[in-house]
Amino acid sequence: EELFYAYQSPARRNTYINDHSLAALYMIARGRPIMGVMEKIISQNLETFHDVESVVDFGGGPGTFLFALSKFKTVNKYTNVERSDSFIDIMNALVEEFLSSSVPHTHVDSISCNYLKLKFQDIPTNDLCVFSYTFCEGDNSLDSLSSLVENSNMVLIIEPGTPSGFNNIIQARDKLIEKGFSTIAPCTVSNGFCPLRDSESDWCHFVERIDRSRIQRHLKNGVLGYEYEKYSYLLMSKHPSHADGKRIISRPNYTKHSVSFDICSEESSHIVITKRENKNEFKIVKKNIRGDLYRKSQGQT
Length: 301
Fold this sequence. Notes:
By secondary structure, this protein is of the alpha/beta class. It has helices spanning 2-8, 20-44, 46-50, 64-69, 85-99, 145-148, 163-178, 214-219, 279-285; strands spanning 54-58, 77-81, 107-111, 126-132, 152-160, 182-185, 206-211, 226-237, 246-247, 253-254, 258-262, 270-274, 293-294. Strand 11 (258-262) and strand 12 (270-274) form a beta hairpin. The longest helix is centred in the first third of the chain and has 25 residues, at 20-44. The radius of gyration is 20 Å and the shape is globular.
């Protein structure tokens, strides 16, 4: 419970785990929701992740990203920079159990240290570096971002879908733009503009529905067989890329004859599609959820 509260409140940052039993319980309670979010992001950007062969995961815990990515492709090398020896031990056990027979085999390595104290010379050159639920764990942790991504071609950042998590995303994006990175997702405005940056009532976040096991319901005092994981994320690359559409950044409002939603755009950000004016587009768009791409010119999503 203390860990859950620490993630929910920006003022409570003590999320360090270095006990095998607690690490195992945390995996059961949080592993699946986090992995589900990662799988969703990867599936929405398959072309981007297709050429990734080397990954450095900063604060990667038990290697959750490795197992999420392995559902879509095999990488040559994965390096987990993790200060908890308990999580590293669990990762090694899981790799032996589930990935050791993979062909071709992924070389899995770990660096046992606080990633904030790591010098860029000590970080392996990589196609992708990952920060998953890490910046929310410490004050001023974003200060080291520019140095940590020096040897990376792409950066993936995932944060809790809270105003605080979104604020971390915005700060990280500003720093990465200064480093010459371009946004791949979820932003669909190329010049750094964000329609929700100064909003007082909303922030850029998405929701993934995750099935719960019986033990997860027990640990979380839950009744339902599922939960909703809210998250914010940022995927950036040193190689410019433009989204084929506009990201839906609000929960669509459906009626019998119309659907409306907001998109990530500098102008005309509110879209209304009526059944009477465009029956085919209405039929497709009414299946949309927050986070999907809206492609008006192609009449599809």
